[in-house]
Specification:
Layout lengths: L9 H4 L16 E2 L2 E2 L6 H10 L14 E5 L1 H13 L16 H10 L1 H4 L1 H6 L22 E13 L4 E14 L6 H11 L6
Antiparallel strand pairs: 1-2, 3-4, 4-5
The structure holds zinc ion.
The site of zinc ion has 9 residues, from loops.
Length: 198
Amino acid sequence: MRFDSVPMPPAVGARPRDTRGYPVPAITPWEDGEPQFARTDFGRSADCARRRLCSVCNALLAPGPVWRVVGAEESAAIAGALAAGRPYRNLAPTLEAPGHRACMLYASMVCPYLARPDARRGLTADAADGLTAHVVRGAARGGQGAVVGFGGFEYAVTADRVLFRFLDVVEFLPHEAADTHLDELRAELARTGPGQPR
Ligand SMILES: [Zn+2]
């Protein structure tokens, strides 16, 4: 969806914009004044992990659940685990950092990179690191994904990357179409009000 047709969480509205007006996520690196949407900035990502900051809006994440947009394969794995009554564990570490519920609902509908973490990886050297070898390139945009709430996360900052592992699914909102989460986002923004997202 066009970014200006989706209600913007206030903290996202405070982000710097690119020339089209797109809000630039906190973990996106800048080069020569241009945001590099396809990449994840190491230092910014490490900041998010260590200081518990939202990877989209850069504001503090309250204690409790965190959210992330997952791609088609992880979405299917979570759906399968939930249907079978099994706990789901994201055992393979990911480069995708957590964020607020509102921020991730927004991102799932607006940003092709944020909305499709697999697509982001497909465009970067990150895809070659083996961590995401299970991701089928090219299929990412066609498949469904999900906005997922997790009870917690762990992280590791290595020499050149920040790895996240998410535990305990507390909310699972799969999407089939680009605007699936529009009503959910409106309700979330009404609930959290104009202050900091939660
Ligand atoms: Zn946020």
